[in-house]
Amino acid sequence: MFKTACLLLFTSLLLTLTAAFAQSAPALPGTQTVVSIHGFDVLAARLEKAIESNKMGLVAQASASRGAAARGVKIRGNLVLMVFRNDYAVRMLAASVPAGIEAPLRIYLTEDADGKASVTWRTPSTVFAPYGGAELAAMARELDPVFEKIVRDAAGS
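Below the sequence we write its predicted structure tokens.
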């Protein structure tokens, strides 16, 4: 009994420390964050519009906060927008089939404690860099300013 209680206590402590470290861990290379003047729902709508106006496709989206709300649980808003376009997908796969796991690229919207929202993404050139190859690197460099513009268009006034 004592051994089980100690194991449970140790596991709980380990999970707490892991969660604390994860929240304070440095961002991955190429990670960009823009704090917006807009609230979460407004910024979500603006991001969807900016994706379309920058001629990219919103492939899918996922939201833990929406899922939690459906269960009656309230957490701060978060939304992952998965963005890409077929012509880029064809070029990416021609350059590197293993790089296909990275598409679609993600834009992460989070609700801040003050009610405003932030947008985080990793630059495509950083995401695709580990796969090497000049063609893939060129495609990723083309996408860097596209993602930057999507976020700036959405987060601006």
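The chain is about 50% helix and 25% strand.
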